Amino acid sequence: VQLQASGGGVVQAGNSLKISCVASGPTANSNSIGWFRQAPGKERRFVAAISWNGGMTHYADSLKGRFAISRNDAEKMIVLQMNNLRPGDTAVYYCATKGSGSNWYETFAYHNWGQGTQVTVSS
Known about the structure:
Layout: E1 2-6, E2 9-12, E3 17-24, E4 33-38, E5 45-50, E6 57-59, E7 67-72, E8 77-82, E9 91-98, E10 110-111, E11 117-122
Parallel strand pairs: 2-11
Antiparallel strand pairs: 1-3, 3-8, 4-5, 4-9, 5-6, 7-8, 9-10, 9-11
């Protein structure tokens, strides 16, 4: 599976942005997918994840209520809707496929990382 993230850009604080992760390959719809973000000089951190059938979602506690993850299997796309954005949300956002383990929140549980999309929130 190959993943490509897109949709990033520059937005003002308080606004919304939707970023997408498109999966390619014969098993593209069979994977749980996670979003992570990495700010300059900081570690890559978990944002949200969705199970392969969309039946389960996970969020970083600090982002619950502002971010929403969904999937459109017809388009092999996983979408991250980000609302009420803050300057602290500025980062490169990456998507990746989740492995078979039970951990949903750590980078080691994911692979097939996409190239990332830059989100910049101005104050």
